[in-house]
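Q:
Got a chain?
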Amino acid sequence: MLQLSPYFIAIIAGWLIAQGVKYIIVAVKTRHFDHLRQLYLSGNMPSAHSTTVAALAMVTGLKDGLESGLFGLTALFAAIVMYDAMMVRRSSGEQGKALQQLIKEVKSDIPLPRAAKGHTPLEVLAGAVLGGAIGLVVFLATR
């Protein structure tokens, strides 16, 4: 019988749950259920990247110990991903929106670039908390 690693279960569950929560939040806010793009787009609440890496770090810390090299590596990886979502991708997304606005204002023929959306600190925090909870559940369920 094929048995999935708790690490992979945490990654998959974290991503699917966070993207599902995003869809539900947008659907409730807009009162429409036709926002299927929320299941794969970046941005919005909660950060799926943060959820996924936090779930992985939690499972690793609980399974291998907080003093293990593997936990140190996953904690560093999680910190880099969350920093990137909040600082780098958010900044580049804001710059993309400004470029779009400039292109529209000067009525240029340049095609509008896609402006990827990053995350606010609250979205990253919510993703990290959700990921920690998912990681704990996965750890307990796979013991």
About this structure: The two ends are 17 Å apart (CA to CA).
